[in-house]
Amino acid sequence: MKVLGVSGLEHSVAFKMAHWPGLNEREYRMSQGFDAAAALVVDGVVVAAAAEERFNRKKHSAAFPVQAIHYCLEEAGISLHEVDEIAHAFDYLPYEAAYGLDPVAAQRYREVYSRDAFRAQVSRELPGFPLDRVRHVNHHLAHAASAYFTSGWDNCVVAVIDGMGEVHGASVYHAHDGQLDPLHHISAYDSIGILYSLVTLHLGFDFNSDEYKIMGLAPYGDPNRFRSFFDQAVQLRQDGSLRIPLLRMNKTRDERENFLVSRRYLSEHLIGERRPDDEVTDNHRDVAAALQDCLDRTLLGFCGHFGAKTSLRRLASAGGVTLNCTANGKLLRAGLFDDVYVQPAAGDDGAALGAALYRASLAGAIPNRRSPVPFFGPAYSSCDIDGAIAESAERIEIVRFGTFAETCDAAATCIAEGLVVGWYQGRMEFGPRALGHRSILADPGHPEMRDRINAMVKMREAFRPFAPAVSLEQGHQWFDIPPLTELPYMIMTVDVRQQYRAALPAITHVNGSARVQTVSVESNKEFHTLLRAVGKTTGREMVLNTSFNVKGQPIVNTPREAMETYLATGIDVLFLGNVLVRRK
Amino acid sequence: MAGQDGIQRRLIELFRDKLEMDVPSAETDLMETGVMDSLTFVELLFHLEREFGITIPNDKLELEHFRSIVSIVAFIEQAGEPIATLGDQRTLLMRPQTS
User: Fold this and answer.
1) Of A149, A251, A393, B49, whose CB is crowded by the most CB atoms within 10 A?
2) Does residue A178 lie within any of the structural domains?
3) Residues with Cβ < 8 Å from A143, sequence gap 6 or more?
């Protein structure tokens, strides 16, 4: 069975702009349905998956993912008519009546949320596809399926925590025997994800986008100064439910749509709103710290409650909030569960994958194996690479290597020399993290490397830390984890061992933590080969690994985009497959 | 009347405690005034099912029944005696939604 999962709500922002004109661009991000993506599952196995942003080059794009769909079909070598089902990762139909409450809500339902709206997009972009083969999966159920069916576990708790699905802000399931039994749902008006995003907006960053920056800012602050505010804001009840009165202060439609009263309350009772260009002060750092601490404690309490209730010792999770590496790391170390798995594309792009897996599971038992490192995106041929090189021939010089091992040796030498290396290999990652195929790499031991990459390459906020990628064999040597611990998705923070923190300034955060990615020969062979080579030149099988993009842009997809980004930034050298590129 | 008054009192408490809404009066039009929005309405149905032991199937939803506290009282009375054994699984909010 071939199921094509799709996420995103194409008309969401346009509708809000038409009905709430005059908001600023950041406020329009208070909408549903970003990160449109497509994922193709054949007989229960993921064949291809990619976010539309990587093709249309609009970060977090909500556009119907037609380019991602065509990529998935091409990767599988099938035509559209061979697809048995298209599964959309939203299903608002059960709430149709609720959206009839007022004319604007009803119009939004018709134009943005309804099955008809989605089917119209299918007809427009995929003409001829039978609409009776278009299906819809509840959003949180899709996320839950993405976690469960890639966990490799038969029996576990599945937690879905995001901003919101159709009407929920968090959901918990007992997954067993190929099915997902709901245990609890929390209203979107008690969504810890929405609270985190609102405070992110209040601190001058982008709602539904920049939450990871607040996570990065938090360790610089004092979590105790504003702790009592967040203690009152988020109430975890004995039955496992959450209550966030701050989100329920909005009483009119306009207030609810843009959380106007909640935001005013933050200004009056927390700190004043920061404009994006204002300096980041201790006030902002302390609020970020208290917010992150609140999230950490909330997730421990929430997930822990259902772990205890079910006596299950394994937790699988998905949903945008579960991209929060700090909270994930605390969950892993808390002892509430023996193991924690976070589906690596935990945001809404991953909901496309989950919708496809869920529909496939209804047709019969599907394999449940731990997700590989998600290189589900497109690869480009050496001809494509040569084409990108030829277009910039007058500005660059190249060296071609005969083998991948030679390429790795050359890259390792560059890294040891303190150069910043663009590293472009094979199939693109699915999900927000670059895991060694579309990466910018450097030596984590160079004291100035963090500021250099932040300022010259990434053009981003100086407070944000970089992540390390380390060979599986050496992970425990540098980080406080047991030998051979697999953390292949860069989705949890762990502590850098005390004695190495000073020697690893580029990847050690101010609190001694790091968002580590472990790399094994089995799951990420090429990147492992590189790390082994780096070990010979620097003494550490470790690199600083950050995504191959500049601020505000999606991660590069094609060789041409890699070349353009290389030439537009301060990256010292670029490896495209087995070709070394330098500026003349 | 005593039954109606009791239901009305419980409803006012439900709006206040569960939905954090102070409804001005039992006759207040919850929809026209914008007091209730789509998400709150879904929550209301969930709490009505749980609090009053009734089931409200999706295909039987008529908004008019929920226009005011007075009309909700009438709806609950019409829905019949409480069914104490109903579990969470049958409520609108808890039901896994797919097709």
Assistant:
1) A149
2) no
3) A89, A160, A162, A165, A171, A318, A319, A343, A346, A350, A351, A354
